[in-house]
Amino acid sequence: MSEATTTAPKVLFEITEDKLNTGLRGFPVGTCRTSAVSPTLGVTYVGYTLEQLKDKSAEEVIYLLLHKELPTPEQTEAFKADLAKRSEIDPAVYDALKALPKSGHPMEWLITGLSLLGMTGKSESNDYKEDCLNLIARISTLVAAIIRIREGWGDPIQPRFDLPFAENFAHMIGLEEGGDVLADLLRMFYILHMDHGGGNLSTFTGKAVASGKADMYSSIAAAMAALYGPRHGRANQECLAFVKEVGTSDPVECEKRVRDIMAAGGLVYGFGHAVLRQEDPRATIQYAWGEKHFPDNELVKTAITLRNVVPPILQENPKISNPFPNVDAVSGSLLTAAGLSNPDYYTLMFGWSRVAGIAAQIVDERPFPGKKDGLAIYRPKYIADGQPASRD
Ligand code: MLT
Prior knowledge:
Helices cover 54% and strands 3% of the residues. By secondary structure, the chain is mainly α. It folds into two domains: 35-232 and 341-365, Citrate Synthase, domain 1 (Orthogonal Bundle), CATH 1.10.580; 235-337, CATH 1.10.230.10. A hairpin with a 3-residue loop joins strand 1 (35-38) and strand 2 (42-45). Helix 10 runs antiparallel to helix 11. The structure holds D-malate.
């Protein structure tokens, strides 16, 4: 018998009965090459902290997720040009979007839009790599068109091949205000939200759907449906509503309002995290950006006051393991200050960014090293409950 067959595999996790029906929380189910989430460092992309990546271009960080190393300046230029030339979408997509009910949530538009992109532009041979690059390039064009058409701001604005990724997105949204500050915020927002390990609900869902060999567009549409839920991506909308409800940057008044909201049974949004046990570095970076660009904006100031006021209040409850700000705590306040003031679009913006990470992870699983057909179809086991073993 060979050594490989006699060595018992390492036990990573004990599956005891109390772990059933807990949303797979903490269960190791696979490996991830793009990013990792640690309780202390937060998310790192291929080993780089976000502090190290926050000033890069969107294209450099996308390249990192896809190639597992940062590009040289020449590779960056070539990659920018490649993405730019892939960024146009079929006019039939715009026509179909124009017929959608405005009452639909922007995420419902996005899910529909992704299917439309697939119907009009997917590769013939279900080439995940090719579709990943096209989708990353086209998502800005789609999301900007959704905002413009749904808001009634006029026809979609075509992508410009000469502009970097985030500037191009700002150009296609077509807001009068904002200018360079909005473009820089979008660049930072995109980088901070791009990826978050393999187990967050949207990424897991996207990879699970791709494991059945559905194409990249359908897999990402499914991932975006997962992101749409208020416990996942839609939390960033609720956060802005919470900051507005508190409505004051005065620390004493702010603490009183938070306590009043909690006493009335209301929730505190933007604090706590599934994995992190300290302030989310994505929040830290955004606070610093807000202090630099919008030091006098009342909403941003309120979010910054909440950063100091909320954790000690939450720490009074010993059951709360992480009372610190997460990625959503200030993002809505920054987007509002920069001119994107309709919170209905914040989950859409999250989706715009997360597509790159999910698509890169799907590419990593199909094919997978040593398995040219990719990982097996996802098929966890459910244990029968409340049913007789047989009715015979
Ligand atoms: C996040 O970005 O914080 C996540 O997608 C949530 C999670 O990791 O579960």
